[in-house]
Amino acid sequence: MGGGRGGKPSDADETLHLRVDALRADETMQLRVPAPPEPAAPGGGRAERRRTARSAGRERAAAPGAAGRLFAPLAPYARRVAPYARRLRPVYPRPGRTGWRRWIPSWRQWLGAVLTSFGLLGAFLVTAYAMTDIPDNLNSYATQQDNVYFWSDGTPMARTGWVQRQAMPLEDIPEDVRWAVLAAENESFYSDPGISAKGITRAVFRTLGQGDTEGGSTITQQYVKNVYLSQNRTISRKFTEAMIALKLDNKMSKDQILEGYLNTSWFGRGSYGIQRAAQAYYGKDVGKLNASEAAMLASLLKGAGLYDPTLGKANHARAVERWSWTLDRMVRIGKLSARERAGYTSFPEPLKSNPLYNTGAQSDYLVELASQYAKKAGHLTDKQFDLGGYQIYTTFDRKRERALTDAVTKARKQARKDDPAVAKNGHYGAASVAADGRILAVYGGPDHRKQGYNESNATTVPAGTAFTPFVYAAGLEHGVRKTRGGPATPVTPDSVYNGDDGVPVTTPEGPYWDRSGKKVAAHNDGGASYGQITLREAMAKSANTPFMQLGMDTGLEKVRQTAVASGLLSSSMGPQVPALSMGNSTPSAIRMASGYATFAAGGKHTEPYSIRRITRNGHPVALATPRPRRAVGAQVAEDVTEALTDSFRTAHPEAAAGRSGVSGKAGTTEKDTAAWYVGTADSVSTAIVVYRIDLAKSLEPLPLKGLAGGSAHSVPYDLWSAATGLG
Q: Whole-model pTM?
C-alpha cells in the first residue's frame, strides 16, 4: 500500500493506489482519506465541547516556555488526574440548560461548595483554638471588692463587704448538692468536651435575630465566663468563651472545673459560692444541705433576681416550679432514688434575709438608703452592685445625723424608764431634707441587726393634721367651687371659714353623708371652737374644721394632686373622702420632710436623693440626678410658709424669739395613733413622727398611750428642735 513497505507516507489529500490480487492485473481500487473535521460550532453537545476543550488544552500544554519545562515531570500525573478534575470543575451558568435552570447548581457543584465550606470552617476553628490562650489573671468577678460610703464632707462613713465568698473543696460538698447543680445546669458535664454546640448555635441565632443572647452554656463555659471574661452578651465573647472552655477542659480535670464553678457562681443576697449561699439562705454550712435545699439553691443559678422566693409571689412560684423540676431530673439521671424524691414534697422555704449581713450601727440605715438609691439612679443590678469597687458619696451630714440620733436615743431611753410596757413597741421616724432634695439625716431605728425595719422610710401611720398645709396650698392654687360645675372662686389667706368644732361638712348639694347614713362633721383638737376664722389664722391656731371644708370646696382630687406634686407618694395617699384633708394618708418621715421642703423652695419640688456622685475604681458612674419641677406657684408657697411660720411662733413663742426662717406645725390623728412635728429651719425641713406598732404581730398602729407626750410637752417637737439646733 502506498508503493509498498518503506514507501513515502501519503498526504491526507493524496490518492492511494492499491492493487488487489483477486482482481484483474490491470484493475486498481481508489481510496480517499478525509481531511480532519472542522472545529465544532458553539452550542454543540456537552461531549463535543469537552473534546474541543481537551484538544485546546493539549495545544496550550505543548507550547514551549519556562513554566512548561518546570512542571514537565508532573505531566504524567496531571494527565491521570485531569479527567477527574475536569468533571469537578464547575461550568456556570450550566451549559445545555435554558432559562432559570441554567442557574441551578449541579449536585457536583453543591458537593464542592459544602466540602469547601467545611474545610474553611475547620481551618478557622483550628487556627482560633491554637491562637486562644487561657488568661493568666482572673477578672473582677472572681476578685470582689468592698463598697465605700462617704459623708457629705468627703470623710469615710462606712465600708461594706456584702459580697461574701468562702471557697470549699469539692470533697466537702455533698454529692447531692453537686448533682442538684449538674441536673439543673449541665447533666452531661462529665461527658461533654466543655462546650455545647447546640447551646452555642441557639445563642448565636438568638443574638442575630433578637439582639440578645440565650443560655445553653455548659458549666465549663459558665466557669470561664465567671472567672476569665466579662458578662457582656456578645457573639465575640461567646466564641472566646467556647475556645477557652475547650482548652480548659483539656487542661483541668472535670472535678477541678466543677469545684471552681461552685465556688465562683453568684447566688444572690451578695453571696458568691455554694458555701455562702447555704449560709445566706438556710443559715447552715453546705455540708449540712439535703437534696431538696440544694435543688432550691440550684434554681438561683438561673437568676437570683427571678428565683429568690422571698422577693415576691411570682418569684416564689418560679422557684417552686424549678425546685420540683430539678429533683425530678435528678431521679431521671439516676442521682436520686424515687423513694428519696417522694420524701421531698414541701418546698424548703429559705430564711427571709441573709444572716451574714453584718449591720447594727445607725449608719447602716444610711447605707441601706444609699445603696437602694445608687442601684436605681445608677441603673445597676443587684449583681453588679454586689461585685463591689464603688465609691459612693452621699448627701448625709455627719453633724445633723449625730444630733438627730442622739436626740432620739435619749427619748427612747427616757420612754423605757417612764413606761417600759408602752415604750417596748415605740417607734421614732425622723428625716431632714434640704430644699434642693438632699437627704441630710435620718433615724431608721435602734439597731439594724435587730430591726431592719427603717422607721424613717415607713409608710404605716397617718399624717394627721400635719397634712393640712397641702390642703391649704391646693385651695390657694386652684380656688374653690361652691356650685357643681360653676366657676372657681379664688382663695386667699384671708378667706374666712367656720372654725367651730363639729361643723358638718357640706357639698354643693348639701351635707355630706357617709355610708352608714350619718352626716360627716369636722372636729378640732380638744373640741375647741374658733368661730369665723381666716385660713391663715386657722393654720396658726391648728383649727382643723376650716381645712376639712376647704378640701371639699377645692375638690379632693385637686388636694391629692397637690400633695403628690409636692413630694408625697401616690401609693401612700388615703381614700378620697373628707378625711383625706385630715391626713388619712400615710407618708413616711422622709416624704413629709420633702413635701414641706417644697414650700421652702418657692413651690419647686425636687425628689429626695441620698447620693451626690458615684465612682468605680476612680471612673465616674452616670447618675439620673433629680431636677426641680414646679409643684405650686411661688406665691402659694410663700403664703403657706407664712402660715406655718405663724403656727410655729404661736405654739413656741420663746423658741421663735430672735429667729427667722423657721416654720412648723404639729400633727395629731383622730385615734391618737401617731404624733408629728414637721417644720423648716434654714431651708432644711425635718419631720418627726412617734407611733407604736407591735412588729411581731402586725403593722397596725396602736394607741400612743402618752408615748408622744402632751400638748404642753410634745416629744416630736422636742426631737425636732434638737435636730434643728433650736432645742
A: 0.62
